[in-house]
Automatic annotation (TrEMBL):
Organism superkingdom: Bacteria
NCBIfam families: PRK13961.1 (NF010568), purC (TIGR00081)
Gene name of the record: purC
Name listed for the protein in its UniProt record: Phosphoribosylaminoimidazole-succinocarboxamide synthase
Metabolic or biological pathway, per its Swiss-Prot or TrEMBL entry: Purine metabolism; IMP biosynthesis via de novo pathway; 5-amino-1-(5-phospho-D-ribosyl)imidazole-4-carboxamide from 5-amino-1-(5-phospho-D-ribosyl)imidazole-4-carboxylate: step 1/2
């Protein structure tokens, strides 16, 4: 995928160096959390991870946005809350398929009172799992890097497809195309299923593949009733101390998935998607080498991107941003 964790225990990771945030961030936007009541373990492109004892984590979803593996200097107001609310919606809806990392512990109860504003609506307390360092990508449509791969090879990530397919066309059946999790700032590497088997073992690889395709199919069927096409998505999994598989990180959000409005879908061209594509398109017009620092995003681009994320939440879930 364009954008839209062999297993180990999550331990303190090298911190991602963030670019300078805007000097006057938008109201209610959170570019970077600054909790003092819990040990900070790591910062990713979007999420800040804190230790809650030895067996749990607090994950704070900020309003940071990355494009072309570079973090923008401006937050997208409300984006983190949208992602958090959307992921929680899917975790609940798909809990019958596979357990997930949520604990049900209220984030406000694990931080100090004066820090509650940093976690309200945008954080979750989760089980500390052993991440599987393979991303589980499921593609139901030919799009993005998959379309480019198909044009060049007649396959997507080594999965042979029928001849004559067009851009944005629905595939006969969803395909599973795993990717090796890369270090922060690097591109994930598409790998074959056999490579995945060699990394984590056949039984676990087949379990992840089968569960991922089921998750995608159930989510796509629901989304269709809401007028949304889920073109592709990625899942991440981890194991608990008993070796049970859990869905973790985020699920079916506008950052991990390609959402298209069904009413503007047509085979042959990509519909406008409900995600950061608006930012990516603007960046493509700029004289920029796709390395830090990123150009300053205009207010209009920030506002329209924030609106796209909110629209995705409302159309998919029927919920307003809480």
């Amino acid at each position: 995928m364009n954008r839209p964790p062999d297993a180990r225990i999550i331990t303190p990771l090298p911190f991602l160096t963030l670019g300078p945030a805007v000097t006057t961030p938008a109201p209610n936007a959170l570019y970077e959390s600054s909790l003092k009541s819990l040990p900070l373990l790591s910062r990713g492109k979007v999420r800040d991870n804190y230790a809650v004892g030895d067996d749990k984590l607090l994950i704070v979803t900020t309003d940071r946005l990355s494009a072309f593996d570079v973090i923008m200097g401006e937050p997208i107001p409300g984006k983190g809350r949208v992602l958090n609310q959307m992921a929680n919606f899917w975790f609940d809806k798909l809990a019958h398929v596979v357990p997930n990392h949520l604990t049900g512990v209220a984030p406000e109860t694990v931080v100090s009172a004066d820090e509650a504003g940093q976690v309200a609506g945008r954080a979750v307390v989760v089980k500390r799992l052993k991440p599987i360092l393979v991303e589980a990508v499921v593609r139901g449509y030919l799009a993005g890097s998959g379309w480019k791969d198909y044009q060049a090879t007649g396959a997507v990530c080594g999965v042979k497809l029928p001849a004559g397919l067009q851009n944005a066309q629905q595939l006969p059946e969803p395909i599973f195309t795993p990717a090796a999790k890369a270090e922060l700032g690097e591109h994930d590497e598409n790998i074959s299923f056999d490579d995945m088997v060699s990394r984590i073992g056949r039984e676990l690889a087949e379990q992840i593949r089968d569960i991922s395709i089921r998750l995608y199919k159930e989510a796509a069927a629901y989304a269709a009733t809401r007028g949304i096409i889920i073109a592709d998505t990625k899942f991440e999994f981890g194991l608990d101390d008993e070796g049970r598989l859990h869905l973790m990180d985020e699920a079916l959000t506008a950052d991990s998935s390609r959402f298209w409005p069904a009413d503007s879908y047509a085979v042959g061209s990509n519909p406008p998607s409900f995600d950061k594509q608006f930012v990516r398109d603007w960046l493509e017009t700029q004289p920029w080498g796709k390395t830090p620092p990123a150009p300053k995003l205009p207010d209009e681009v920030v506002e329209k991107t924030a609106a796209k994320y909110r629209e995705a939440l409302e159309r998919l879930t029927g919920q307003q941003l809480a």
